[in-house]
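ligand=calcium ion
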Amino acid sequence: MWRSVLVAMLLAVPGSAAVADCDPNDPVTGLPDLSYSFVVWSAALGGSATLLVVPDGTGAAFGGARRPGGAVVDATIELTIGGPCGVIAHFPREDIWLEVLGGGFVACAGGTIADADTDVNGVTHWSQPLRAGGHSQGPCTIVIMGAPVPGMPALDLHFNSPDLNGDRVVSLADVPLFAAAFNGAYAFAADLHADGAVDLSDIPMLARSLGAVCP
Ligand SMILES: [Ca+2]
Ligand SMILES: [Ca+2]
């Protein structure tokens, strides 16, 4: 039941309407039609989810995201790409990416693309760690060939990183920013073990990533 929570719109499924639109002689029918594509995000209920990202891709898998209070939540995103003639299999992952709308998030090149090309059912996922730094508490969306999936509510998925200053390197330059939150006012960017507090449990996430850079 939990799994079935549908975040995005399914404007049409390959059915009678799709068949009516399908023209096998039209080369365009082999391309994705965003109105036949949809996203499922089972983490939608229960508030935001925060994912730790590191430029070298050693951050958290989507299955290890955290609610604001620290509870682990599976934030895996599932995308089905379709067109008028049915699902689009083997669509290249390079053309499907997660776009973070909040400022301060800095992705490495290709750092937010899907895990894999779409499978025979037109399905792909985001479950593996991203390659990125900085932080965001803004929404994010799924983009196919540069265009967002229509009707898809923004995902309340947040990010932070031991690359606190967002220069795509985890280095000593990030330490003062962490220390300021450790010793002073709470900062989401430094809450690397996301649980609403910056304390000793957040230090290992910074220490173990020192030296991490984009591939
Ligand atoms: Ca940095
Ligand atoms: Ca924390």
